Automatic annotation (TrEMBL), chain A:
Residues 22-255 form the ABC transporter domain. Pfam families: ABC_tran. One of its GO terms (cellular component) is plasma membrane. It is a peripheral membrane protein. It is found in: Cell membrane. GO terms for biological process: response to antibiotic. Transmembrane segments: none annotated. This is ABC-2 type transport system ATP-binding protein. Keywords: Antibiotic resistance, ATP-binding, Nucleotide-binding, Transport. Gene3D superfamilies: P-loop containing nucleotide triphosphate hydrolases.
TrEMBL record, chain B:
Keywords: Membrane, Transmembrane, Transmembrane helix. It comes from the Bacteria. This is ABC transporter permease. The keyword Transmembrane applies. InterPro entries: ABC-2_transporter-like. It holds the Pfam family ABC2_membrane_6. The chain crosses the membrane at residues 31-56, 68-89, 110-138, 150-176, 203-225, 237-260. It comes from Kribbella sandramycini.
Length: 327, 272
């Protein structure tokens, strides 16, 4: 469905050294400073996949997505999406893809949400019946009823994002790109959006490429992830093996109200911090199962509350990156 | 294939324009004020024009009534630029703020989406002024009107609009590389509105030739006016070229549009 080979994107701007008359010199300098945002990455995504595209800020995620969507033209390398070169076959590509960019709306700002949908119906030449059915389904799935007649400029972020999702999926493109669709949203809105994405992926077989910093998004939705940093591919594979490989320890936090935890100890875990009411211990899930540690602690101490901390994505990426640098 | 793309573009243009006008009318007070403001502004222009031209009497052998006609022709041509293409003024913004992202992933031309991105309300004032000026000054000119000449006049007005649109499109295309083109475009607009309504041979032979072939402002009003007034003997170029001036607009615009589409590959979407 999506094939990326040795994809590279460089941005260049005038190279101005700071100092006197820097502004004036910037007008005349011929020196250019080239930054390579994406540096020769290759991967493929099959039809029907729901893939997480991850990496820290400035890793080159958005640049890559923008090349996949045809917004940016690669400096070198190739992209083909459903057999087309996105930036060359823009018109055809537009019908193949839907895109939601969390930071920026695709809707008509001054018109009611419903009008934006109508414009999309006309632009993509949808027939009235299909449009009605699909809009009805989506409205129900995402709960658009309350605000579909509100001008987009008056919508909350969560409402707008739901509107954007519908706009991207109305004409049923086989591929959907989501660039941070849950950033800044509350729990309910996030939940609705995840539900919708899962639904269109499983029921309609839409291929989804999801960029996010939200580990929850990834864990709930993605089977496979691609991780990049500094424009280079760091990992491509399923989430479970990623964790098994990079997260070798897990932390457990215990609380007690009628017992002093300062002297807490366990044969299965190492104590990281221990105070009178709260202690944190670390264990290796590969050698010791979580229930075993939990059982050991709860049977020996009067513990009132307990939680196992899941590794977060940023940590995983950091480890991945550090490992790569140190060889 | 080419025809079907054209048909798609016309259809998309209609859809997007309707949306732009509906959006503009959502701000009712602003809509009415802007239109009234546009008309008032252009009305004072018309008065000023009368005063100015009456003062001069003769420029480069042209008498008042013909000068007024020439100027009216340029105003009408200008309206044919600002009404359909006026939204191009926001090209820098579209590039800087990333609206272009959206235009590049919809099934319509990026250029079409730029010029239909909003309804240029002020332009309605220009249209009113252009039509009024032409209605007043064309009959008073020394043109010996016939159906053929009226048809030529209409073609000239449309062609003149396309020349201006072409020049502005050419400059707007640099937005993809330079990000900011506002001052260049204002300079061009200023030059056109200041000089294109006068007999350009007043700048001498080389001045005239550069305004014909380099910055082809002469095609906007001056060349068609010389044809209508039978003054082509005054020109240092062949008469057939002046007579073909309405087609010049189509040529300039087509080249500019091709250039614009080529420049899109330099677009660096913000925040990537």
């Amino acid at each position: 469905m999506i094939e990326v080979d040795a994809l590279t994107k460089e941005f260049s701007r005038p190279d101005v050294r700071p100092g006197r008359f820097a502004g004036t010199r910037s007008l005349f300098t011929r020196a250019r400073k080239v930054t390579r945002a994406v540096d020769g990455i290759s991967f493929r995504i099959d039809a029907g996949e729901l893939i997480g595209f991850l990496g820290p800020n400035g890793a080159g995620k958005s640049t890559t997505i923008k090349m996949l969507t045809g917004i940016l033209v690669p400096t070198s390398g190739t992209v083909t999406v459903a057999g087309q070169v996105p930036w060359r076959d823009r018109r055809q590509n537009a019908r193949t893809i839907g895109a939601v960019f969390g930071q920026r709306t695709q809707l008509w700002y001054d018109l009611p949400l419903r009008d934006s949908f109508g414009i999309i119906r006309d632009l993509y030449g949808m027939d009235a019946a299909t449009y009605r059915t699909r809009l009805g389904e989506f409205t129900e799935l995402l709960g658009l009823d309350e605000f579909i007649d509100t001008p987009v400029r008056s919508l909350s972020l969560g409402q707008r994002m739901r509107g954007d999702l519908v706009a991207a999926m109305l004409y049923a493109p086989p591929i959907l790109y989501l660039d941070e669709p849950t950033v800044g949203l509350d729990v309910v809105a996030k939940g609705k959006i995840r539900e919708f994405v899962a639904e269109i992926n499983t029921r309609r077989g839409t291929t989804v490429v999801l960029t996010t910093h939200d580990m929850d998004d990834v864990e709930r939705l993605c089977r496979r992830v691609i991780i990049i940093d500094h424009g280079v591919l760091l990992y491509e594979g399923d989430l479970e093996s990623l964790k098994a490989r990079y997260v070798t320890t897990r932390d457990i936090v215990v609380h007690a109200t009628e017992f002093d935890l300062t002297s807490v100890a366990s044969p299965f875990a190492e104590v990281l911090t221990a105070g009178p009411a709260k202690a944190t211990l670390r264990f290796a899930p590969a050698t010791t199962s979580t229930p075993k540690v939990v059982h050991d602690l709860t049977s020996r101490y009067p513990i009132t509350d307990l939680s196992v901390l899941e590794p977060d994505l940023e940590d995983v990426i950091r480890q991945l990156y550090t490992e790569r640098r140190t060889g | 294939m080419a025809e079907s793309v054209l048909r798609q573009e016309v259809r998309a243009g209609r859809i997007l324009l309707r949306a732009a006008w509906r959006a503009a009318m959502g701000y009712r007070a602003n809509f009415l004020m802007t239109i009234m403001g546009g008309v008032a502004l252009q009305g004072t222009q018309l008065l000023f024009l009368g005063v100015l031209l009456a003062k001069f009497q003769v420029i480069d052998g042209w008498r008042f009534n013909d000068l007024a006609f020439l100027f009216a022709l340029r105003l009408a041509a200008h309206a044919m630029y600002v009404v359909p293409f006026g939204a191009m003024i926001r090209i820098d913004q579209a590039v800087q703020q990333g609206d272009m992202d959206r235009y590049l992933i919809r099934p319509a031309g990026a250029y079409l989406q730029v010029i239909t991105s909003y309804a240029p309300l002020m332009a309605l004032g220009d249209l009113l002024l252009g039509c009024t000026a032409l209605a007043i000054f064309a009959p008073q000119s020394s043109v010996d009107w016939s159906p053929v000449k009226v048809a030529f006049l209409v073609a000239a007005v449309l062609g003149g609009g396309l020349v201006e649109a072409g020049l502005q499109t050419f400059l707007a295309a640099f937005a993809f590389k330079l990000t900011s083109t506002m001052s260049m475009r204002i300079l061009a607009d200023d030059t056109i509105s200041r000089f294109s309504g006068y007999p350009l041979t007043m700048f001498g032979r080389w001045g005239f030739l550069s305004l014909t072939f380099l910055f082809p402002m002469a095609f906007i009003a001056y060349l068609p006016a010389t044809v209508l007034l039978g003054r082509t003997d005054q020109l240092p170029i062949p008469t057939w070229l002046a007579a073909a001036s309405p087609a010049g607009g189509l040529l300039v615009f087509t080249l500019a549009l091709m250039f614009f589409n080529r420049m899109i590959k330099h677009y660096n979407s913000p925040g990537s």
